[in-house]
């Protein structure tokens, strides 16, 4: 050991010189070595990637569309759709749906509101979940205890997936929503508000279709009448209807009401109620168009600040 120790420092000092001498030759051999080994390494590349990278199926649980029985989520087309289209848009919507249902005083009615908003029947939803339609009915009517988080996650995922398989018409409509200059205020209600209660709260007077004032509404939109008529396109009108068309559309700055009702008449989506805020008088044509469309037409004389406060109190 003493003999080796006495020569070790001197040999260690020679190491850099040896490496400098042999490194160019080793570097020159590297391409040859790679060329020789490449044919053997390439066939192994897919196996190596499969071992270290997650599969599309493994990534899908991160997507806001949760697994639901009888719906084959774990296919590559669905994976690509989630990455390109659904995930950014539907995640916010899924959170909004689940949050409203959980926080609602009547979760069953709120669940029905969202099912109706997507135009999905109880049978269709039950089939997607692999459950009996009576279970969905019991949830919505309050005969069964409110669904837990896991069940609610499956229900929301099933609703979104059914819409996706139809081509995503509702999801596409929600994706186009955004701020509009003509909109003064917009809000959704977690449960349906009886139209009669809504009208009483805003001290409204029904001037057309009073027999239709027994329906429920799920939100409201307050519009500047002139800006809405002159600046909103058919695309922009999708924003006016928020999450559902079962809402009250309140027009401000109305003189006779003819133009707003013509706009309502010409658009395929119809509100549950139309309210004119402080009109000068109501034109007979506006009343006639409301009767043709079977939409209750209401007037209110409240000050705007008072009106907004009362709408928020519902």
Overall description:
This protein is an alpha/beta fold and 314 residues long. The chain is 57% helix and 12% strand. Strands 1-3-4-5-6-2 form a six-stranded mixed β-sheet. Strand 4 (248-252), helix 13 (258-266) and strand 5 (273-277) form a beta-alpha-beta unit. Helix 4 (76-103) runs antiparallel to helix 5 (107-117), helix 6 packs across helix 7 (133-141) and helix 13 (258-266) runs parallel beside helix 14. Residues 1-9 and 49-88 have low confidence and may be disordered.
The computed structural class is: alpha/beta
Q: How would you spell out the order of helices and strands?
A: HHHHHHHHHEHEEHHEHEHEH
CATH C-level class of the largest domain is: Alpha Beta
Number of helices: 15
Task: Using the 3D structure, state the CATH architecture of the largest domain.
Answer: 3-Layer(aba) Sandwich
Outline type: elongated
- According to CATH, the fold-level topology of the largest domain is Udp-n-acetylmuramoylalanyl-d-glutamate--2,6- Diaminopimelate Ligase, Chain: A, domain 1
Mean pLDDT: 75
Taken together, the total number of domains comes to 2
CATH superfamily of the largest domain: HprK N-terminal domain-like
End-to-end distance, in Å? 92 Å
Percent helix among the residues? 55-70%
Q: Widest sheet: strand order? A: 1-3-4-5-6-2
β-strand percent reads: 5-15%
């Amino acid at each position: 050991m003493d003999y080796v120790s006495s020569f070790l420092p001197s040999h260690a000092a020679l190491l850099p010189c040896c490496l400098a001498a042999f490194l160019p030759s080793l570097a020159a051999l590297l391409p040859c070595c790679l060329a020789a080994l490449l044919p053997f390494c390439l066939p192994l590349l897919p196996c190596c990637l499969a071992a270290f990278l997650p599969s599309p199926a493994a990534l899908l649980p991160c997507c806001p569309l949760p697994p639901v029985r009888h719906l084959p989520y774990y296919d590559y087309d669905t994976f690509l759709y989630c990455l390109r289209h659904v995930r950014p848009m539907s995640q916010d919507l899924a959170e909004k749906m689940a949050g409203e249902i959980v926080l609602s005083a009547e979760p069953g009615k709120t669940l029905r509101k969202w099912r109706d908003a997507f135009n999905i029947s109880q049978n269709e939803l039950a089939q997607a979940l692999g459950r009996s339609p009576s279970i969905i009915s019991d949830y919505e009517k309050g005969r069964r205890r409110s669904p837990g988080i896991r069940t609610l996650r499956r229900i929301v995922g099933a609703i979104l997936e059914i819409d996706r398989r139809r081509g995503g018409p509702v999801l596409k409509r929600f994706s186009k929503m955004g701020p509009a200059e003509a909109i003064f205020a917009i809000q959704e209600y977690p449960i349906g508000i009886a139209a009669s209660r809504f009208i009483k709260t805003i001290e409204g007077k029904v001037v057309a279709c009073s027999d239709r004032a027994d329906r429920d509404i799920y939100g409201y939109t307050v519009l500047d009448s002139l800006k809405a008529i002159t600046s909103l396109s058919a695309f922009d009108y999708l924003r006016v209807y928020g999450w559902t068309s079962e809402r009250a559309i309140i027009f401000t700055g109305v003189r006779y009401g003819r133009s707003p009702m013509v706009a309502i008449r010409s658009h395929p989506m119809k509100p549950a109620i139309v309210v004119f805020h402080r009109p000068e008088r109501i034109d007979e044509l506006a009343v006639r168009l409301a009767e043709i469309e079977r939409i209750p037409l209401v007037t209110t004389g409240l000050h705007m600040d008072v009106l907004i406060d009362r709408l928020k109190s519902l």
